[in-house]
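Example 297, ligand guanosine-5'-diphosphate.
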Amino acid sequence: MAFESLTEKLQNVFKNLRSKGRLTEADVKTALREVKMALLEADVNFKVVKQFIKSVQERAVGQDVMNGLNPGQMVIKIVNEEMVNLMGSETTEIPSKQGKEITIWMMAGLQGAGKTTTAAKLAGKMKSKGKKPLLVACDVYRPAAITQLQVNGEKQGVEVFSMGDKNHPVDIAKAAVEHAKNNQQNLVIIDTAGRLHIDEDMMRELEEIKAQVDVDATILVVDAMTGQDAVNVASAFAEKVGIDGVILTKMDGDTRGGAALSIKAVSGKPIYFVGMGEKLSDLEQFYPDRMASRILG
Ligand code: GDP
């Protein structure tokens, strides 16, 4: 299960804190050192951990906490609040156009991150909210990706726009938007090509689609199981292509938690949704407070 080891370690630290009636500054320091170790072992970015501990420490050794009725509980509360802050405080919605205009979302990500699956999951979710989505197959380098999108789109009852693998992705995206206009669809979700590693061609293609089609949100799909790599990928895409937010997949696996806790702080971009399994219904909105509660156990 995700976060298992992190949760267990944090719970031990908190148990010690709770068992003490009064806390000295040294008690708090010891506890925070243990929290720090636990976060580092969970693969949370080093700078993020440092800043996090500093914020908690500043608040926790304040007079109010140390002289309060239940200082242990107060420290735990502060850790919880700072963890929520770290993940962006509030739930962020993916940017959309209002009214009758067509919203365009572009999915990006490395191969295997779960981009194609997530595009179909997202389309289904938005359909259930009353949108009329159109999925667009722009991964022309991997014919299997087109088929995969078609199969998943069908399962979701969402039309998939494809022009095979002989056309340029920009032309496909433009034609798809025209198609959506003519068919009263109001949400276009473009599935793009992924590569095994970040490379210039992939970035250029994403930039080109973005420049030629009026994309409202570029959504990066990253695999939570890859820990700090996921965070590095998010930073690289944020810098090179410009992304609006992230969907973190495979949170149902035994990820240590580093990606969920670091992505916002490192890349500056919010997490919109988390993938919780292979089924097309396994997509959940990301709530920083609920995630913090889950991590803290
Ligand atoms: P793409 O190359 O980025 O388009 O990745 P795919 O959509 O083909 O997904 C790669 C693999 O990851 C597939 O086997 C998916 O079923 C799986 N996958 C995607 N999202 C999740 C998730 O949230 N949880 C789990 N367990 N598997 C996922």
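Summary: Residues 109, 111-117, 148, 194, 249-250, 252-253, 275-278, 282 surround guanosine-5'-diphosphate (CB under 6 Å).
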